[in-house]
Amino acid sequence: MSVNKVILVGNVGKDPEVRYFENDRAVANFPLATTERGFTTSSGQQIPERTEWHNLAVWGGLAKVVESYVKKGTQLYIEGKLRTRSWDDKDGNKRYTTEVIVENLQMLGRKSDNPSSTGQAANTGTSAAPQNQQPVSSPPQQSPTQYSNNDSNEGSPEEDDLPF
Amino acid sequence: MSVNKVILVGNVGKDPEVRYFENDRAVANFPLATTERGFTTSSGQQIPERTEWHNLAVWGGLAKVVESYVKKGTQLYIEGKLRTRSWDDKDGNKRYTTEVIVENLQMLGRKSDNPSSTGQAANTGTSAAPQNQQPVSSPPQQSPTQYSNNDSNEGSPEEDDLPF
Amino acid sequence: MSVNKVILVGNVGKDPEVRYFENDRAVANFPLATTERGFTTSSGQQIPERTEWHNLAVWGGLAKVVESYVKKGTQLYIEGKLRTRSWDDKDGNKRYTTEVIVENLQMLGRKSDNPSSTGQAANTGTSAAPQNQQPVSSPPQQSPTQYSNNDSNEGSPEEDDLPF
Amino acid sequence: MSVNKVILVGNVGKDPEVRYFENDRAVANFPLATTERGFTTSSGQQIPERTEWHNLAVWGGLAKVVESYVKKGTQLYIEGKLRTRSWDDKDGNKRYTTEVIVENLQMLGRKSDNPSSTGQAANTGTSAAPQNQQPVSSPPQQSPTQYSNNDSNEGSPEEDDLPF
DNA sequence: TTTT
DNA sequence: TTTT
């Protein structure tokens, strides 16, 4: 009945904060920046570049990957869903925060950018690609840059356990 | 350098509010609900269904389409980007609101669901479909269910003109 | 290191064919049509509407959902990945077929469009929606319109068991 | 009425071939590899890593960007749509080829990976990010790594002019 | 082969 | 505030 999907490619704004809860459950929180290029409208107006900051929350096993490999400046591809939480501020006002609950995460860039990597060169394959057809290839190995949360119980429910 | 993309399928929570500005520029604002099904975790915990509400903002020509065809209850597919705006509340606190700036919108459901439609019958093409291959077809016309904002100056810049 | 994602909203071209294998493993295959509207280029050229046909393959539990609820004409949202298979034709030429392996599927449209539905009424929640903010809602039950394959062993491996 | 969307992150398999047509219209064609990690099923079966090759076609201004900046090994994010073309082979059989018509393309990786770049460091921002809120930032510079085709007459129509 |  |  519904789809709630976010796809971001951007740079991590600061080192993730990772917190652990009962049952070894973890969350990593960090900001991710996406930047839209500036441009000139048809009417000649100059629109400057604009950076958007997204609050990411990464649960479970993925949080540990984040703890080990993601830091300020890292370029990431993430897939997730939107979640808005509410809380009461010191003045008794209802406040809202929108986060992206990350469900899939990829570290981008060449091997040499990922300290975690073995430094091996980027895969390009060597299979012949006859006349614009799709060869079915079989390649080498890969370093730890792809991760996914499919527990389906990530992110939401236990959030109520959290000291937000 | 960046990707900031949101894809939602959900139901409109109330009739859109459309506002017009100088130069016939328009915005439509309305809430869209997405609902995640409840489930039972592997440890037997019951997780209830959860509805997420998204604030949508639709600019330009798309806003007029929204004005004409979208209303409370309409099922929509939308594609857009995240935008967080800040403002100062009555207590002088900085407040943040996250919206989805809609760039592409599709009305879902059968014709009979869209009051706008003429209820006209359908179908075309008679090409054979041999062994799981993809024939290339060639068809007729279409009614108003697909719309896209590619002005590239939608949504952001003139936001500063707005009485938010 | 990689993302391979397809998102389609379209109509089912014919009733799915479902095949069962050992261990009660199932696949459903069917074509899905997406249609791009025709338009007129800036130079005045008329570009007609164009329909694209996609070969979908749905594995596992999702295949059974397809068997029960999806038929010719059904409007679907699907998420999946691209897969190109090769085979040798009668003339000894290598042939390629590209399919979309479905990982998530949603039936679109109102209840009345889904014969599977119980036609039951709806709605919940009474939370106020102050000034464009996102309330957090709390809900009931759901009918069979959302399904997902997260076995992670869907689609690919056992394909080798198949009589393609 | 329809959505036909592909999102890929992968590595370019060989240097793009760029062809020019009348009116300075260009296409770039090249293969992109995406790789799924291998895994072990719950029943203990070892599923090896698998690489999928996608045929990309990039039209118009984007093709020139590709010509200048994309080469074998480049890591790309692309967004596009599926297109299946048919042709008759030497034995008189109808053959089908599925391509991804690219509509948006991003070069990934650090500046230093993009020969086009000025070698400047990756942006991370320095704005404070109070209590998990979304600061509205104001950013630095950007190099030529984001490009989009929104002519809406890209890719399809003039394809008929082509010597495929 | 769908749907508009 | 939607929808199932």
TrEMBL record, chains A, B, C, D:
GO molecular function: single-stranded DNA binding
Listed Low complexity bias regions: 127-136
SUPFAM superfamilies: Nucleic acid-binding proteins (SSF50249)
GO annotation, cellular component aspect: nucleoid
Polar residues composition-biased segments: 114-126
Gene3D superfamilies: Nucleic acid-binding proteins (2.40.50.140)
CDD domains: SSB_OBF (cd04496)
Region (Disordered): 106-164
Gene Ontology biological process: DNA recombination; DNA repair; DNA replication
InterPro entries per record: NA-bd_OB-fold, Primosome_PriB/ssb, ssDNA-bd
Keywords: DNA damage, DNA recombination, DNA repair, DNA replication, DNA-binding
Annotated motif Important for interaction with partner proteins, positions: 159-164
Keyword DNA damage annotated: yes
Oligomeric form and interacting partners: Homotetramer.
Function: Plays an important role in DNA replication, recombination and repair. Binds to ssDNA and to an array of partner proteins to recruit them to their sites of action during DNA metabolism.
UniProt-recorded name of the protein: Single-stranded DNA-binding protein
Organism: Saccharicrinis carchari
